[in-house]
Amino acid sequence: FGLSFLSTPCPWKGQRRSPMVVVEDIHCCKHTNGTPLSSDVDVLWDYLETANVIAFRIDSRGYVTKWNEKATSKLEIEKETILNHELAEFLHCTRGSVSEGDTTTFLLHSMEEENPNPFNLYVKTTFGGPPVVLVVTLTTYRGPDGAVQGATVIGHDTATQDIYCSDLQNFLDISGSSVAITDLSGGITHWNWKMAHLTGATSDSVLGRQFIAEFINKADRAITTKCWTDVCNGQPASIVEVMLDRQGAEPLGVALLISPKTDSTGKVTGAIILVSKSGKHRRETTHRPESNLVQTLFDTTNAPIIGLNREGLVNEWNRKVEEITGFKKEDIVGKQLPKGIVHDGYQALLEQVLAAAKKGEETTDFEFELTTSSGENMVLLMNTAPRYDEEGKFIGSLCVGQDITKRREVEHKLVTVANDLQKVIDTVNAAIFSVDTHGTLTEWNYKAAELTGYSKEEMLGREMITDFITPEMRAPMQALFSNAMKGEAISNFEVPLYAKDGRAVQILLNATPRIDSGGTLVGVVAVGQDITEKKAMETELISVANDLRKLIDTANAPIFGIDVKGHINEWNQKAAEITGFEKEVAMGRMLVDDFISDEYKQSVSNVLEDALNGQETANFEFPLYTKDGERVDVLLNAATRRDANGTIIGVVGVGQDISARKQTEDLLQTVAADLRRLIDTANAPIFGIDIHGNVNEWNQTAAKITGFSCEEVMGKSLVKEFISLEYRDSVQEVLELALNGNETSNYELPLFTKSGDRVDVLLNATARRDAKGNVSGVVGVGQNITQRKKEQAQVEAIANDLTKLIDTANAPIFGIDTMGRVNEWNQKAAEITGFGKDEVM
Questions:
Q1: Can you give the pLDDT at residue 304?
Q2: Which residues pair with 781 in a beta bridge?
Q3: Are 309 and 386 in contact (CB under 8 A)?
Q4: Which of 199, 505, 574, 769 lies in the 20 to 30 Å Cα band around 28?
Q5: Smallest Cα–Cα separation from 491: which of 455, 537, 528, 460?
Q6: CB-based contacts of 579, cutoff 8 Å, min separation 6
Q7: How many C-alpha atoms does 468 have within 13 Å on its Cβ side?
Q8: Residue 412: what pLDDT?
Q9: Which residues pair with 243 in a beta bridge?
Q10: Under 8 Å CB-to-CB from 490, ≥6 apart: which residues?
């Protein structure tokens, strides 16, 4: 008759009273072959979902389909992480299974075969630590067609057990036998379902009762009590055959394997009793300590067992020893343990252990090295205890061990990794320190020593917060450590450490809890970066930013900014002054919509959009309208505004109020137009050339006297096109002098008209300069002296004639100036006076 037991705490009006035991009759909801139907399994799962036991379900492929709350909290694997994933992804190899290298195959095989025996699952933990060991049982469920649909797995964490523990707990878990546990008074504290089935006594009815007094036949109580007492006094294990009294049934011949139950510190707290049926009446097996049943237990256990008789000859060599050493039982039993198997260094230890056993003393947890048949070294962790017959006489020694060869290899690798990690910690370019749960420093690497000037030897063992943190930072630092010890990871916490020379070293800390291999919190580890220079730079940048802010706000130019949506987010004092809108009024409003006139809105929007796309604009003129409605002309440079990551966040505009300048420019343009008109209509020929000698000015009078229109001469070389060959060099020289800033006045310049006639011009050549004062050409203002030249030639001809007439006149002629000096003396005067002209002039 099948029952499923589920025990969970039962709250009563908010108080914890007693366990609630849910008993599910699974006989009626089993398939014809005894397996639960899938339609009935969900009823049980409703209880398992919140039960105080680890439970989950897998489908026929080995994928997880259910995962209860206890599994989440105990194994620290969230439902979202494991559901619909293969269970094997989260497990180490299933030890003791039929398929040690393939967990999934083992689980599927167990479902198909409906394996009722408990077995171990080794759940992976974070950071590569030891796995969590679960002892689980698997219940298969099938569909209406009898096909396997999956299985419900219920287990418990072995808690204080390590996978390499030295006691026999793993042996008990994988044996598949009935199990009872007693405390040091002999009272029953645990009674598993198979024990209940074997004895007919339920778990709740036996808890607290005396195991030996109530369930061991009176004839066997003395030997059982001795074995149980020895185990409770620290001996590792004893095996005894007895008659087991049962409720409502005949006594049953059984073998008891009694082993110590210990807590996490190794202290014995009771006994674990594994019970296996012998199948025979006790009378047939009395005084046979080497019975078939005991031999079966020895051979099937997954721990190596070696037995020696009182003469030191091997009388037990189980299958596990055969498997790990390669030496067959028949080659070893009845002989001394070969020296070739035992390492030389361990021969003396073995003799000491055997001698102690003869004295009734046990030896626990000693390492023993063997050489296998293939020459490989193997390390066993052994417990040795005396072996007694039913009358209490010493008959030999029993050595129960565990193969820890791989563990040793792992430990060596872990030591190597630990050394490498320690080297990394010591040499990494970041300050690393750790404190224990009391705040005492336990780690202080080279970089921390370098930054502070305190060596590792000076720091270890001292109080971190009270000795090295300033008073104002102690409370925040204590809160950081407290939060980290609660499992919180702390990032980017700034704290000043004071160096040996009094300097404040600014550190940016990341702190995480420090967990030992057993999952116990042992302190906090902190990794810090020296940000002293960075902080100084940040301070400088803040100072610069403040200065820039002040500069922007007090600048003598209007400065405004907008965000990516066009809202004003910057408006300095000058902008407020020239517009009449205070900063508080302008901030947040739309620049274009609220402050730009309709005819300029599109052009201003285009400039701002370009800047928001990274295309900056310089010297863009646009009008702003003041609070009073007056127009203010602004010359704007629109620059893209970016954040620290380079992302465009707006536009900043630096402007200049050019209203007065615009008025001046308008006036200058008027004057320039008047001058242009004056030049063009002047009654004197005016022309200009650029620095290359090409004509760029030609007024109406110049066109009139030469016959060449402005269009015909513009851009042509003045000297090459309009000056005769014999005058070109001299004219070129005058123009070059003017281009070098040496002006020329009253230079006679011959020009040839379109009809080939010569026109004489009296020229003033002046350098032409741009706004920066650089010579940009020559402007010539001339006077047409062609007619005057003709008249002058006529006057000179008459004068020449008169001079000739005076000089050849037949009468003496002389002249004097106002001072009475001779300035005229003709030939006749010379003739009659005898004084030559040269003598009297």
A1: 84
A2: 686, 764
A3: no
A4: 199
A5: 528
A6: 558, 586, 595, 624, 625, 626, 627, 632
A7: 28
A8: 79
A9: 253
A10: 480, 483, 484, 509, 510, 511, 512
Percent of the chain with pLDDT over 70: 84
Res. 93 pLDDT band, cuts 50 70 90: low
Cα gap 97→121, rounded to integer Å? 10
User: pLDDT at residue 567 above 90?
Assistant: yes
For residue 338, the 8-state DSSP code is: -
**How do residues 461-512 score in pLDDT, each as one tens digit?**
988 888 878 788 888 888 888 888 887 777 788 888 878 888 888 888 888 8
CA neighbor of 702 nearest in space, from 723, 681, 672, 724: 681
Query: Using CB atoms within 10 A of its CB, is residue 627 exposed (0-12), middle (13-18) or buried (19+)?
Result: exposed
| Residue partners of 188: CB distance under 8 A and separation at least 6 | 180, 181, 182, 206, 207, 208, 209, 210, 211
Which residues partner with 568 through β-bridges?
A: 562
**Greatest Cα pair distance in the chain:** 199
Nearby residues of 240 by Cβ (< 8 Å), 6 or more positions away? 220, 223, 224, 227, 255, 256, 258, 390
Residue pLDDT, tens place only, 586-617? 999 998 888 888 888 898 899 899 999 999 88
Encoded tokens for 185: 């008074």
429 has pLDDT over 80: no
Q: Please write down the HEC assignment for all residues of 762-787.
A: EEEEEEEECCCCCEEEEEEEEEECHH
Flag whether the pTM goes above 0.70.
no
What is the torsion angle, in degrees rounded to the nearest 10, for the CA atoms of residue 331, residue 335, residue 340 and residue 345? 140
Residue labelled with tokens 């615009």 = 662
What's the length of the chain? Answer: 841
Structure tokens, 623: 């009008």
CB under 8 A, 24+ apart: contacts of 245-250: 245/199, 245/214, 245/215, 245/216, 245/217, 246/198, 246/199, 246/200, 246/201, 247/199, 247/200, 247/201, 248/200, 249/200
Contact 531, 507 (CB under 8 A): yes
Closest of 367, 371, 384 to residue 324, by C-alpha: 371
Q: What residue has token string 């030591």?
A: 415
What single letter denotes the amino acid at residue 399?
C
With a CB cutoff of 8 Å and minimum separation 6, the contacts of 392 are 223, 226
> 324: closest CA among 290, 294, 368?
368
Separation of alpha carbons 826 and 812, rounded Å: 6
Residue 398: in which H helix or E strand, if any? strand 394-403
Q: C-alpha angle with apex 186: 180 to 191, nearest 5 degrees?
A: 20
Q: Confirm if 441 and 464 have CB atoms less than 8 A apart.
A: yes
Residues 6+ apart with CB under 8 A from 538: none
Q: What's the token pair of residue 836?
A: 């030559």
Place of tokens 């720091």: 459
Strand order in the sheet with 758-769: 695-698, 686-690, 775-784, 758-769, 744-752
Burial of residue 550 (CB within 10 Å: 0-12, 13-18, 19+) is exposed
Look up residue 551 and give its amino acid: L
Name beta bridge partners: 504: 498
In the chain, the N- to C-terminal Cα span, in Å, equals 170
Q: pLDDT tens-digit profile of 283-334?
A: 333 333 344 545 665 666 667 888 888 888 888 888 888 888 888 888 888 8
Q: How far apart are CA 23 and CA 300, in angstroms?
A: 33
DSSP letters, 12-34, are ETTEEEEEEEEEEE-STTB-TTS
Coil vs helix vs strand at 287: coil
Residue 619, Cβ neighbours under 10 Å: how many? Answer: 8
- Tokens matching residue 483: 């939060």
For position 83, what pLDDT does the model report?
A: 93
